[in-house]
Amino acid sequence: MLQTIINMFKIPDLKRKILFTSLFLILYRLGSFIPTPGVNTEALKAFFAQANEGGNTLFGLFDLFVGGNFERASVFALGIMPYITASIVIQLLGSIIPYFEKLRKEGAEGQKKINQITRYGTVFIGIFNAIGMAIFLQHTEGVVSMNPAVFTFTTVISMITGTMIILWIGEQITEHGIGNGVSLIIFAGIIARYPAGFLNMFGMIRSGNMGIITGLIILAIMIGVTAAVILVTEATRKINVQYPKRVIGRKTYGGQSTYIPLKVNTAGVIPIIFAQSVIMMPRTIATFFPESPFYDTILKMFSPGEFVYTVLYMGMIVFFAYFYTAIVMNPVEMAENMKKYGGFVHGTQPGKSTAKYINNILTRITLPGAIFFAIVAVIPEFMMKWTQIPFYFGGTGLIIIVGVALETLQQIESHLVMRHYDGFMKKGKLRGRSR
Question: Taking the model in full, what pTM does it have?
Fold first, then answer.
């Protein structure tokens, strides 16, 4: 492991990408501590401490995705969530509106237009969320002392600017760094909260509020769930494909047997992020109507741990797992490509039969993977009720951490192997030298 890390910095291109990514993630974390104008951060911190003690875990859950920025009411308080929500809407429209479907098929130029529309959608949704945030802060006692109209205006401008800066940082990391920029930003925000969570747990053990046995059980659950998440994330179903021999001139091509790896978790962490964005919308809308008779009902129904919230959250994770898998995996296209080069699956006719066969396998393997991640995502709700710890051990955060970490390690692995170095997945000595 140590040798592999040393090898990473022996490759100039990989070293530059890693340092670039690290620098921009540090800039993101530094920006997280710039407060929104007019907010009394001490009063807000006291409110969150009281809310967490009262079991209101929605604030902690949203704060998890924005890296603690919501609790500090920083200019990055909205995080990258408006962009995620806009992406969901655009992808949904791509399935029902011909114009977006056409853009998706236009290659790089069409993707450029989709990205531009998504940015406009990010601004619109961000304004909507920022207004809701401003109303929430104004209704929190002692947090805001400015004129309501002025505070709302400055909050919207500050937070929208913050969101667009985060989006720019994510795009720069994706283009010039290593890994997916948006995923790494969420990853960095979650990781930043873990040290405080562990210190909180050990503090409760030392103070006697939590027994040592309980702490060991929690640690064992964390290790077990982490191992299970890694196992399911890496699990694949291999479809054997045979290519016949072809004689071109005096040379013989093909004749080899290969396979198509279909992941149990093809969609990665996207279903979790999508579901989280959607499940927060009812409460966001409710903040616009604080005097409404349905205000308290909606806030209670869509709070983590409540039956309606849990069922909808798990259901949406399963739905988005199928939805995103259908977007990134096209069985018809895969079957046509195989047929084009003479490949076939044993016992299946090329073309439509092969596409149907692949689609059936995707349908079967996606369901258990989606259900597993849905269960893991709600585990912290029950753990928090049991331990009364205002920190998310595992669950949604763990799934995102594992998924993003494995994706980034695979990209680093490809750079190492390409330069004849052993990567993280293989043991052994240096096989060659970078050139």
Answer: 0.74
